[in-house]
Automatic annotation (TrEMBL):
It comes from Rhizobium beringeri. This is MBL fold metallo-hydrolase. InterPro entries: Beta_Casp (IPR022712), MBL (IPR050698), Metallo-B-lactamas (IPR001279), RibonucZ/Hydroxyglut_hydro (IPR036866), RMMBL (IPR011108). Residues 258-378 form the Beta-Casp domain. Residues 16-241 form the Metallo-beta-lactamase domain. Gene3D superfamilies: 3.40.50.10890, Ribonuclease Z/Hydroxyacylglutathione hydrolase-like. The keyword Hydrolase applies. Keywords: Hydrolase. PANTHER family: CLEAVAGE AND POLYADENYLATION SPECIFICITY FACTOR FAMILY MEMBER, INTEGRATOR COMPLEX SUBUNIT 11.
Length: 544
């Protein structure tokens, strides 16, 4: 194998599961090993075997701590990887917290799931990994500085550039040696927006051979929000939500997004622009992540404002389950910031279950909502949803403020890619849903001389000096190509159950409801329905 080969084992057609395996003459490096989120079909990939041999991986450079980039590292180690995981010091601090929290969540969810399965006489499952598994792999982390060249197996070397997305986040420049000279490959990681409260503008080198670029917001522009404009918009949302006995629920990613929103809320209250009210941070992970941000506050933009917000008398962090449950008893207008940001797990689901049916509730989305998640379903205007098996009619008001997004929007991504020119061979668009990738691909094809490629999950490309070549693979796909980044049959099923419930409620009497159910059974299994109706007629005629 003279030329490097790049495998796209995640974030190909969707925004989660970032994982790229680079094979060179001298070895294999894995850039990111993230968890899949979104639809149930996509999340099932987390439980399947990794699509490569972990024992043959030589090094793992990690772009940043978000779970969709780091979340399967404990699984990787558990499956046999014992080598180094390179990351910035801030990323290591955050991963130390986040990966153990991820293990705890999986243990808790599996306990609940297995309890239901035992009652239904179904098979039980094991967590992907436990908190202990996460703790056991932490010694594999090795801290790197921005701009510092590191060499790994086979003469491959890499260095980190500040991506401006999250504390410690990085784009990673990789050089692989070859007979025709080194091949320069740049992995963007997640590229930060220009208006981040804590982060600097993203930086990266120019003149690369291959660029692997995220495209989360490849099809959309955010409104231009300077700090004052963003706070003005937040003030409007708080003011319109402030009703006696009401609540403003903010589903938020526990790491950085929560800290940014908290800093802005307290600043508005200190300036008298909104009435001071209780602000509850309902996330143990956010509490622990906040300690990491305090540690690095001197390196953050607006670090002093963040520290002031933490000491505000109306800010409280819930730690125990009892403290979290007690939030349902709070009276008077208050604000709750709770994880998870896409409403897929964690305490926000309990808060939503308690409040969505009430018109005095406002839900404010401050981050990207992936297809198939509860957050996206609510954001798109669902009137009825199911949480923990219960049907809820949505009366709450939905609001979105994308000024807090950690991702560059379309024009910012275009400008960032332009700054990498000349790109000699190809741009691979990853970490984006299909519509976003297609829109960005159409624009870039007119702006850059390099070929623009949208890889599918588990595609592999040979990266030669002449260009990228797709390698034919007969291995069965881990998931149907149409599934990543889209709602799946589980979402359709939940919608069908709600529609059926509404239909049955709308029928006037028991006889009418029986007709609806009989028609449904006939559609599902005509032969079985005929047999049932035959038995019913026999019993009626014979007095049974």
């Amino acid at each position: 194998m003279a030329n490097p080969i790049l495998h796209f084992h995640g974030a190909a057609g969707s925004v989660t599961g970032s994982c790229f395996l680079l094979e060179t003459v001298g070895g294999r490096i894995l850039v990111d090993c993230g968890m899949f989120q979104g639809s149930k079909s996509e999340k099932e990939l987390n439980y399947k075997p990794l699509p490569f041999n972990p024992e043959k991986v030589d090094a793992v450079p990690l772009t940043h701590a978000h779970i969709d980039h780091s979340g399967l590292l404990p699984k990787l180690a558990k499956a046999g990887y014992g080598g180094p995981i390179f990351a910035t010091a801030a990323t290591i601090d955050l991963c130390t917290i986040m990966l153990q929290d991820s293990g705890h969540i999986q243990e808790s969810e599996v306990r609940q799931f297995n309890g239901r399965n035992r009652r239904r006489a179904r098979e039980t499952v094991e967590p992907i990994y436990t908190a202990d598994d996460a703790r056991s792999m932490l010694p594999q982390f090795i801290a790197v500085e921005y701009g510092e060249w590191r060499e790994t197996v086979g003469g491959v070397r890499f260095r980190y550039w500040n991506a401006g997305h999250l504390m410690g986040s990085a784009s990673i420049e990789v050089e692989t040696p070859g007979a025709d000279g080194a091949t320069r490959i740049l992995f963007s990681g997640d590229v930060g927006a220009s208006n981040k409260l804590f982060e600097n503008l993203p930086r990266a080198p120019s003149g690369v051979d291959y660029l692997i670029c995220e495209s989360t917001y490849g099809d959309r522009e955010r409104e231009e929000y300077a700090l004052k404009d963003r706070r003005d918009r937040l003030r409007e949302v708080v003011a319109s939500s402030n009703s006696p006995g009401g609540v403003l629920l903010i589903p938020s990613f526990a790491v950085e997004r929560t800290q940014e929103v908290l800093t802005d809320l307290v600043a508005l209250m200190d300036e008298g622009q909104v009435p001071r009210c209780p602000i509850m941070i309902d996330s143990p992970l956010a509490s622990r992540a906040t300690e990491a941000f305090k540690k690095h506050a001197a390196d953050l933009g607006h670090g002093k404002a963040f520290l002031r917000a933490l000491n505000a008398p109306n800010v409280r962090f819930t730690e125990t389950a009892e403290q979290s449950k007690a939030l349902d008893l709070v009276r008077g207008f208050h604000i709750i910031i709770a994880a998870s940001g896409m409403c897929e797990a964690g305490r926000i689901r309990h808060r939503l279950k308690n409040w969505l049916w009430r018109p005095e509730c406002t839900v404010l989305f401050v981050g990207f909502q992936a297809a198939g998640t509860l957050g996206r379903i609510l954001q798109e205007g669902a009137t009825d949803i199911r949480i923990q098996g219960e049907e809820i009619h949505v009366c709450a008001r939905m609001a979105t403020l994308d000024a807090y997004s950690g991702h560059a929007d379309a024009s910012e991504l275009d400008a960032w890619v332009a700054g990498r020119e000349p790109i000699r061979n190809a741009v691979f668009l990853v970490h984006g849903e299909e519509r976003a990738r297609e829109a960005m691909s159409a624009r870039l094809s007119k702006q850059v001389s390099a070929k623009v490629v949208c890889p599918s999950l588990d595609d592999a490309y040979e990266l030669s000096p002449a260009g990228a070549r797709l390698i034919e693979d007969t291995t069965p796909a881990r998931i149907k190509p149409v599934v990543p980044g889209r709602p799946d049959w589980n979402n359709d099923y939940q919608g069908f159950v709600l529609d059926l419930s509404d239909r049955l409620k709308s029928v006037a009497d028991e006889r009418g409801r029986a007709v609806v159910l009989r028609r449904l059974r006939r559609a599902l299994d005509p032969d079985d329905v005929s047999a049932v109706e035959g038995r019913r007629d026999f019993n009626a005629n014979h007095g049974s």
